[in-house]
Design the sequence.
């Protein structure tokens, strides 16, 4: 069965796990104050997800602002670590899967060594957050392969080289097809080669299609629950890859048909209206008799 979830915040940012601050104001006091705001909203968003019956939530990458920046004092993480460890049991009690998806500036196949170095530092921070909360390896960190830089084959080789030189990444890293460069077929082949699970993005696949094997994609997850992403084309004029406010029912049903009866699946709904879009989708699914998978906390909420 398929479960769905939202990412980072409510649509109006009333609750947000990406609160940040100005770099010029960065200090232990401002960092911990902002981090506590993110923790408070994270727990509120888990409560919201529980009440809606959602199975997955994407935690904001700014959960600990500037954690990978050169001006960040790693000693500050001692206070953060103790807070995260105290939260661990409560977070896991919801039974809602937590994942992360760093921004486009994380590029593991860049020809620039400084970009790759900063990307690795950012991913190390993401890994530390999920490890410190004691979450299973299903709490993945999703990245795109990157650019092509005029030579796609060489770009893929650089990605493979970065993973090979940093085996620690394979503990949580997952790779996703994109709307421009790397198709689902490309990413499945890369995932098989490197032992990385593949996140299928339905919208990106519509924009950058390929004849990929869904069964081969599923096998990259090694028996655990895959994560997919779903959004729909916006109404009116829009930029390439821009997500719509809501998800169309036919897009969800098309994805569900592609998935078939292959077991549990978590789908992050990447609509701009976030929980409002998910609530609308749930109502539409109920009208057509489609039942979603729910988290263990759902009956308690």
Sequence:
């Amino acid at each position: 069965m398929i479960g769905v979830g939202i990412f980072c915040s409510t649509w109006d940012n009333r609750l947000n796990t990406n609160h940040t601050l100005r770099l010029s104001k960065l200090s232990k006091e401002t960092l911990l104050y902002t981090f506590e705001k993110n923790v408070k909203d994270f727990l509120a968003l888990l409560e919201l997800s529980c009440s809606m019956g959602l199975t997955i939530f994407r935690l904001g990458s700014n959960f600990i602002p500037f954690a990978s920046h050169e001006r960040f004092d790693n000693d500050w993480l001692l206070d953060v670590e103790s807070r995260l460890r105290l939260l661990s049991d409560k977070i896991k009690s919801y039974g809602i899967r937590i994942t992360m998806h760093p921004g486009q500036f994380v590029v593991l196949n860049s020809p620039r060594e400084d970009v790759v170095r900063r990307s690795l530092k950012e991913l190390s921070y993401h890994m530390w957050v999920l490890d410190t909360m004691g979450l299973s390896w299903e709490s993945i960190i999703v990245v795109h392969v990157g650019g092509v830089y005029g030579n796609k084959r060489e770009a893929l080789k650089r990605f493979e080289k970065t993973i090979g030189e940093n085996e620690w990444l394979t503990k949580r890293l997952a790779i996703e097809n994109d709307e421009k460069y790397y198709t689902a077929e490309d990413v499945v082949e890369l995932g098989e080669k490197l032992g990385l699970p593949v996140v299928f993005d339905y919208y990106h696949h519509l924009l950058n299609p390929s004849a990929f094997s869904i069964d081969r994609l599923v096998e990259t997850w090694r028996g655990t629950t895959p994560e997919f992403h779903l959004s729909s084309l916006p109404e009116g004029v829009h930029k390439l890859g821009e997500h719509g406010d809501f998800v169309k029912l036919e897009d969800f049903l098309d994805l569900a048909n592609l998935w078939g009866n292959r077991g549990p699946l978590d789908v992050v709904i990447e609509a701009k209206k976030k929980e409002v879009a998910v609530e609308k989708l749930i109502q539409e699914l109920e009208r057509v008799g489609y039942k979603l998978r729910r988290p263990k906390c759902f009956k308690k909420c």
Q: What stands out?
A: The chain has a mean pLDDT of 95. The chain has one domain: 7-11+14-287. Residues 28-52 form the longest helix (25 residues).
